[in-house]
């Protein structure tokens, strides 16, 4: 364990937000859009370069690694700096406000608007409104197929307070925390091994949380290393992350090279055929490397030109509405084909992708400004000040707790 020194990379505040990370959400969301459009137009299956579109579901790996990093960081930061730990009830309240209202709206619209979902059973409503649609075969409905990853992420949200306590402990020991956070890979390894033994379904159980514990754990481990570096408590080995971040083009070039490997059959089929356990495990590993190589230059190191671009107003706006783009783009794709009476697996990739992005961003903007941001603001204000009881005149404002760096606004 290292003793406290000055941070290796000076920052305005060790507890400050990392605005450049907002843009990574946008990259993940756009990648998922490209993946779905490629499948819908059959370009994924019928062209040589379709393998790149098939592997754009790497955007999910980016989402999961980011979630592990951003949500675990406040716990690690609290112990490392001697601050109060995040309150569990406040954490759950903010997570619920962040994801549930917009998600429920998307579920209602898809069930009401899309003919393929009619009739909607009580079971469909119950499963989708409670994020349990992934625990039985064939339960994902039209316009909502992408929500399997959201249901998986909700499990991580629920487990995180316990995982954080286990990983951080009572005293700040960064090496131990990194190792414990990384142990999620052991759960994923055991889960994939059970698939190989035939104990688990290679189609159904690839959507469950244990399959992706390694991705969430990697994000948590990076968060612990980041806090250690910024508080001067990191061993010398951790500084390789800052060194890598100083060469973003090299990291992203390496990510592209790993992506090229993933486009081959080694990572499994391009269509909906279930992968073998070896193919699935290989894909998980390659995607984890890609997500880490994309994230490190944006999260670590000093200020670079790449971080300036990622922190620009347009990039951060895309990050703000990226959740809405993720939620609404499958509905947009369905409506394009429905209104134009297009058969499935037809159409040009570029025009369908452009239409999906334009209308998907429009839906996302309405969702963010009309639902997500107002409810988050209202909910936060009500939690801070009970109705009808404002602060007394001249009294100081209550001190803010550590910032919720996972919230995009």
From TrEMBL:
GO cellular component, one term: membrane
Keywords: Acyltransferase, Hydrolase, Membrane, Transferase, Transmembrane, Transmembrane helix
Keyword Nucleus carried by entry: no
InterPro entries: Acyl_transf_3_dom, Acyltransferase_3
Sequence intervals crossing the membrane: 52-75, 96-116, 154-172, 179-200, 212-229, 249-268, 280-300, 320-339, 345-366
Annotated spans, Disordered: 380-409
GO biological process, alphabetically ordered: lipopolysaccharide biosynthetic process
Official protein name in the record: Peptidoglycan/LPS O-acetylase OafA/YrhL, contains acyltransferase and SGNH-hydrolase domains
PANTHER family: ACETYLTRANSFERASE (PTHR23028), ACYL_TRANSF_3 DOMAIN-CONTAINING PROTEIN (PTHR23028:SF53)
Single GO term (MF): hydrolase activity
Keyword set includes Transmembrane helix: yes
Pfam families: Acyl_transf_3
Domain Acyltransferase per the UniProt entry, residue ranges: 19-363
């Amino acid at each position: 364990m290292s003793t406290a020194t000055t941070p290796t990379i000076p920052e305005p505040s060790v507890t400050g937000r990392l605005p450049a990370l907002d843009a990574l959400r946008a990259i993940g969301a756009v990648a998922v859009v490209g993946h779905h459009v490629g499948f819908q137009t059959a370009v994924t299956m019928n062209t040589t370069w379709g393998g790149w579109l098939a592997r754009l579901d790497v955007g999910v790996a980016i989402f999961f690694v980011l979630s592990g990093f951003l949500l675990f960081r406040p716990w690690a930061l609290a112990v490392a700096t001697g601050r109060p730990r995040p309150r569990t009830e406040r954490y759950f309240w903010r997570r619920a406000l962040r994801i549930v209202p917009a998600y429920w709206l998307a579920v209602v619209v898809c069930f009401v608007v899309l003919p393929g979902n009619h009739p909607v059973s009580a079971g469909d409503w119950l499963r989708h409104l409670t994020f349990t649609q992934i625990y039985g075969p064939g339960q994902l409905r039209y316009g909502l197929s992408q929500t399997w990853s959201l249901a998986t992420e909700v499990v991580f949200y629920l487990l995180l307070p316990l995982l954080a306590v286990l990983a951080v402990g009572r005293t700040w020991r960064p090496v131990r925390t990194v190792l414990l956070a990384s142990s999620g890979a052991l759960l994923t390894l055991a889960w994939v091994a059970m698939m190989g033994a035939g104990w688990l379904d290679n189609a159904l159980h690839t959507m469950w949380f244990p399959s992706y514990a390694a991705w969430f754990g990697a994000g948590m481990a990076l968060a612990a290393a980041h806090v250690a570096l910024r508080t001067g408590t990191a061993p010398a080995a951790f500084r390789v992350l800052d060194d890598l971040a100083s060469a973003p083009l090299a990291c992203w070039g390496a990510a592209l090279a790993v992506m090229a490997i993933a486009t081959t059959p080694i990572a499994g089929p391009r269509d909906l055929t279930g992968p073998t356990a070896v193919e699935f495990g290989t894909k998980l590993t390659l995607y984890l490397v890609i997500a880490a190589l994309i994230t490190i230059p944006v999260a670590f190191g000093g200020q670079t030109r790449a971080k300036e671009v990622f922190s620009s107003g347009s990039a951060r706006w895309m990050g703000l509405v990226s959740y809405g783009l993720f939620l609404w783009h499958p509905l947009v794709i369905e409506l394009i084909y429905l209104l134009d009476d297009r058969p499935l697996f037809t159409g040009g990739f570029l025009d369908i992708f452009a239409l999906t992005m334009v209308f998907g961003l429009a839906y996302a903007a309405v969702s963010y400004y009309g639902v997500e941001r107002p409810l988050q603001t209202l909910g936060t204000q009500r939690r801070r000040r009970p109705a009808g009881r404002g602060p007394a005149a001249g009294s100081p404002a209550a001190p803010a707790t550590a910032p919720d760096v996972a919230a995009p606004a």
